[in-house]
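Let's practice the habit of predicting before peeking. Look at the sequence and jot down your guess about where helices and strands might fall. Then scroll down.
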Amino acid sequence: MDMKLEILVIPVSDVDRAKQFYAKLGWRLDADFAAGNDFRVIQFTPRGSSCSVIFGKNVTAAASGSAQGLYLIVSDIVAAREELRRRGVEISEVFHDAGDVHAGTDEPYLFGLRRVSGPDPEHRSYRSFASFSDPDGNGWLLQEITSRLPGRIDAAATTFGSASDLASALRRAEAAHGEHEKRTGQRDANWPDWYAKYMVAEQAGTELPQ
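Done guessing? Here is the structure:
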């Protein structure tokens, strides 16, 4: 039986402050639900991710800021870091994992990685990183992956939990494509490619084709 990782819980002390921070990252807000004054849960999904994060009030007993080593996979570490900087996020310089090589820095270790400044000299997958924290100190790592090890599935691939989910996505794409044909005034013989672009963009939370 397939078991898909769906949710990670992040412990925070100030729910609204955390909501503002994760919105600043450009992540999709999926839910903000409260039950009286004693419970509130907020869910965000990073762009291109099939896994979401939740935080809130009385969601977890873990100490705020205790979530560390949370990985975000990117295809271009420099571009991803620059995007976060433009969004006002304080983020480290790009560094790579030196393995057994002496790092030569004042703070060589981070989440078990032996840090050396700059991206991996050979630009190998899994080797280049940048780090940042949310206002509570929960620690995130950007990791650059351009090609995956054999047997690994690309986390950015479009996936569906069931045939029903896929059917629903196809119906939404069909409806959107109908509006597209109305706007252009032409029949689109290349509709499979348009459906594919729409479904991938919808799941990634990026701009939908028009």
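How did you do? Helices lie at 15-24, 77-86, 163-184, 191-204.
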